[in-house]
Predict the structure.
Amino acid sequence: MSSSDLFAIGSSGLRSMRAQMGAISDNIANANTVGYNRRTVLLQESSVAASSEPLYVPRASFGGSEIVSVSRSNDMYLDASARQTGMALGNSNARVRWLTEIETALGDDSLGVGGTLNTMYGAIDKLAASPSDTSLRTNMLYSIEQVVNAFHKSSDGLDTVLQGTYQTAQSDTTIVNDSLTALTRINEDLLRSQKGTSNYAQLMDNRDAELTKITQRLNVDISFGPNDDAILSYNGTTVLQGNTASSFGVTQNANGTLAFNINGTATADPTNGALGGEFTSATTARTRLNSLDALAVQFATDMNTWHTQGLTDANVAGGALVSVGTTAASLAMVISNITQIAAKSASGTLNGNLLAITTTRGNSGVEAGWTALVANHGSMLNTAQTEQTAAELRDQNARSAREQVSGVDLDREAADLLRVQQAYQASAKIIQAAKEVADTILRLN
């Protein structure tokens, strides 16, 4: 082995170890970067020596080292699993969020429909004990007005949920479209980049990050081309291939529910991811509002039927207490004068009609309907919260398994850094030894 061989071995070692130190530095710097995959530099015995030395024998007459590639530590199956669990978690989070908002809108407290109905019946019972008491009459009308206001409050709250799901779905759709656009650029860059380089590894990280953003929101199907470029489809329609991407859109139907489209053409609603949760929640909010509207109409019908069968103090048939169209929002008070209260029965009993208020209660009454509405929604929310807890656990496990392969262990990186630094110093000493040999030869006479 000549001194020139030593120079080649030493210089190749410096290059190789410098590349490895660069990869380790990147790993340490990105230890907490979401979506970063650990890098390693793969080396092999230099092929230059074999071409320049006729008597070169691999592994017997070492000729230095060379960089093969920058390897990105990842497992495609673990990546896919993490995307699936992230999609399910996104769906659960969205559903729990909006189902909780619906529960708040229903407001089953003292100022909610159920609480004010109970207060109203109590006020009528008190008036029945003293039908001529003007303060109790005023309190009765006020309690009915509170029921009307409670219906309005719940209706407004559910309307707010419908608008909220629409706006959030629009925002999530914008993120999906932005990620699809970003993936078209990444696909092009992957086509032009050389595999096994740092740039290629970074593009792969960027690709996976955009895919994660999409799958957290939408149930798309993912495959990869020969250059690791992403190919996405939704409901059987290809929405991304190469540098061409479709655009998703969300519109709101007349009843407040949501509709999905691809490039303006209607398509199936999302079934998973955050968008799936938002679409489902909008439908649930619409269902709850329909039930509330029906209860408001029933309340007006029951109360007016009861009141019109009685007589006022002037022996005039009672009029309608409230008016309503087809929605809870249209419910309104009609009577505002306490002298218009029909407390008497048709037979002339002073509190006869007040006592007959019990006919509006029972298993088929508004109170029972409200209780069933709140109970059904509470059960749905409880189920969604249980599913959310399970989805969080599955997602944590999937991400943990992925991190075991792709994540950065700082202790391991520190140990590798010490090893590579020593190898770098050893390569430098080889060059120093070659220099000393050359100097010695040159000084010979």
